[in-house]
Amino acid sequence: MPWAVFAGLPMLLAITLLLSEQSVTALIAQAYLNEFVQNGRHSLGISCH
């Protein structure tokens, strides 16, 4: 069971970063923000247009 917590928390963080532009702003320069978020959404199969 502890392995599920250790695997689930990073996955939840990654999904949150990919789906919300506001939380990524502090981590990635503005020039790369749009490309990072769009590529993440496409890889998850979520339309962003």
Task: Give an overview in words.
The chain is 76% helix and 0% strand. The model has no long low-confidence stretch (mean pLDDT 67). The chain is an all-alpha fold and 49 residues long.
Q: Please state the structural category.
A: mainly alpha
Number of strands: 0
Calculate the mean pLDDT score and round it. 67
The major sheet is characterized as: none
- Give the number of helices: 3
Oligomerization status of the protein chains: single chain
Percent helix range: over 70%
**SSE series:** HHH
- Overall shape: elongated
Radius of gyration: 12 Å
Poorly predicted segments: none
List the helices and strands and how they pair.
Layout: H1 2-19, H2 21-24, H3 30-44
Attribute tags:
mainly alpha, 3 helices, 49 residues
